[in-house]
Automatic annotation (TrEMBL):
Keywords (A to Z) from UniProt: ATP-binding, Cytoplasm, Ligase, Nucleotide-binding, Pantothenate biosynthesis
Binding, beta-alanine: 65
Role noted for this protein: Catalyzes the condensation of pantoate with beta-alanine in an ATP-dependent reaction via a pantoyl-adenylate intermediate.
Residue ranges of coiled coil: none
An example molecular function term from Gene Ontology annotations: pantoate-beta-alanine ligase activity
Binding site for ATP: 34-41, 152-155, 181, 189-192
CDD domains from the UniProt entry: PanC
Catalytic activity entry: (R)-pantoate + beta-alanine + ATP = (R)-pantothenate + AMP + diphosphate + H(+)
Source organism of this protein record: Bradyrhizobium hipponense
Protein name as catalogued: Pantothenate synthetase
Length: 283
């Protein structure tokens, strides 16, 4: 049985653990998560192990990125299973603070990102979200002091926001995106997939199929507006309530008008029943 990772719950204990790793001249990778780990998270850990000699995984369900109407209280928490997965992957340290450790009484400083955080995608429907993400990730970076940090491409706008923030604030962290891990039928792995009923789970694959269809049309020369309209039609016909289905520049998330504006990324967010799903693919 592999040894369990060291579990740090306070900033001083985390700093001691990281300092001990640094004494061995190790490079350190951070994988930030909110727990409820699945194979997508495991793929992030494996990439981290390839890119650094030591790996820290944070597990913290961050309340500041949830609106009052969202699922903070119901967000899945699977601590024992998570630790077993991380032990099996040889993770060195798990940073598992509680809310009071991250946001102590009197906490009054927040990061307010712009640029890709104001692209009119997730921010249009969750205006609170990227301020919460940027603040907690900024704290994670300064607490763990990693050389690199691994984020999944499934949350593509988040990846762009965090990358921009790390560069703008000279945090000394190289942010690396890891490809989206999918189920065999194409559905992107997500902790929120457990909310889907069996019928909704079958329908959910429409998002990936619509993106692939639209991407193929764009590569074949069809106008972006026409390809987006077709994808939108597919998704809404399947019963989703669509928030957005859009094509953007893959680095800046700026609007685009043709394939020549590339590299391009298709991004989608839609609600199926009570479950909101997001996904994206390259064109």
């Amino acid at each position: 049985m592999p040894p369990s990772p060291l579990i740090a719950r306070t900033v001083p204990s985390l700093r001691r653990a990281v300092d001990n790793l640094r004494k061995r001249k190790s490079t350190i990778a951070l994988v930030p998560t909110m727990g409820a780990l699945h194979d997508g998270h495991v793929s992030l850990v494996r990439l981290a192990k390839r890119r650094a000699s030591r790996v820290v995984v944070s597990i913290f369900v961050n309340p500041t990125q949830f609106a009052p109407t969202e699922d903070f209280g119901a967000y899945p928490r699977t601590w024992k299973a998570d630790i077993a997965k991380l032990a099996a992957e040889g993770v060195d340290v798990v940073w598992h603070p509680d809310v009071a450790a991250m946001y102590p009484e009197g906490f009054a400083t927040r990061i307010v990102p712009e640029g890709p955080a104001l692209a009119g995608l997730e921010d249009r429907f969750r205006p609170h979200f990227f301020g919460g993400v940027a603040t907690v990730v900024g704290k994670l970076f300064t607490q763990c002091r990693p050389d690199i940090a691994i984020f999944g491409e499934k949350d593509f706008q988040q990846l762009r926001v965090v990358t921009r923030m790390a560069g703008d604030l000279d945090l000394g962290v190289n942010v690396i995106g890891s490809r989206t891990v999918r189920e065999r039928d194409g559905l992107a792995m997500s902790s929120r997939n457990v909310y889907l009923s069996p019928e909704e789970r079958q329908t959910a694959t429409t998002l990936y199929r619509a993106m692939k269809d639209s991407a193929g049309r764009i590569r074949a020369g069809e106008a972006i507006g026409s390809a987006v309209a077709r994808g939108t039609e597919m998704i809404e016909a399947a019963g989703f309530a669509l928030d957005y289905f859009d094509v953007r520049h893959a680095r800046t998330l700026a609007p685009v008008t043709s394939l020549k504006d590339g590299p391009l990324r298709i991004l989608v967010a839609a609600k199926l029943g009570s479950t909101r799903l997001i996904d994206n693919i390259a064109v």
